[in-house]
Amino acid sequence: MRRTQGFTLIELLMVILVVSVLATIAVSVFVDFGHDAKIAITKDRMNLIKLAILGDSRLVSGGKYTKPGFLAHCLVVPADLTELTNQPGAGACASDYNPHTQQGWKGPYVSTSDAEIFNDAWGEALIYDGTGRTITSSGPDQSPSTSDDIVVSF
Question: 46 lies in which domain range?
Fold first, then answer.
């Protein structure tokens, strides 16, 4: 009686088929993670900017807000996002913060070490509208005014 060892061709083909199906599923899952991560990063940046403008009313110590934001200090929303990192030359925030009146520029309101803070995760500049009180990202397609835009209102 002869004993044969090894796998048949059918068994090898089935293993290759199963491995290729699993690899295809894994690749599609990882691609979706990258897309979702960029959306999450963009939303986080936009919410940080919103907090810099409005402040965080949840942070109170001794009956006073500990993070009031640009609006509370200057009594207006910034004309553009750069006013959150650089003191404006005119308007209510042209002067330094006065602790007695609790008004004036007390920035920077966002980190100046993050060069990408005013860009979305795709590298495009965020669209700021102080009048309409919105911050908009063009989203994954990088085209404004389309269905995939990400908008944060404040």
Answer: 11-153
